[in-house]
Known about the structure:
The protein is mostly helical. The chain has helices spanning 4-9, 15-39, 45-57, 65-93, 96-99, 101-123, 133-157. The mean pLDDT is 90.
Amino acid sequence: MPSLAESFRGRTLSPARAVLLGTLAVGVLDGLDAVLFFGARGVAPIKIFQSIASGILGRAAFGGGVPAALLGFVLHFFIAFCIVLTYFLASRRLPALTRYAAEMGVLYGLVVYEVMNEVVLPLSNAGAGPRPIPVLVNGLLIHVLAVGLPSALFARGATPPPERTPAPAVAL
Length: 172
């Protein structure tokens, strides 16, 4: 079985495996960041996942106990799946997304952050509140490092290496 580093150099991951592993990476890293960052500010993990469920349930999610938190957990990974799948599918049409995976991943993370905060949250039942500077900085950093980059790197891991034409033989 190829190492993860080898997977990023050429096509050693199947598309399904790349999307699955990308989803797990994005979901775990982003979720862990939320639990640690907001936990340091006194927010219990159950409240973090209830807040995700509030996108569907509204304020009732905060009184929904563990079932609402579990819904939020599932929704969190579903959103991660959608984000990774979107990048993967776009990369099949736009080879620059895998050729320049690091740069495009950073950009993608920033785009995802904006779409989530300016489109998805306002359209959901969760509502969007103010974002103090530490929350804004953490959000931008985690979307670049734990959302955009993994999405791009796993897409690249399922990209066949470019065809190389052999150099012409030189007669001596």
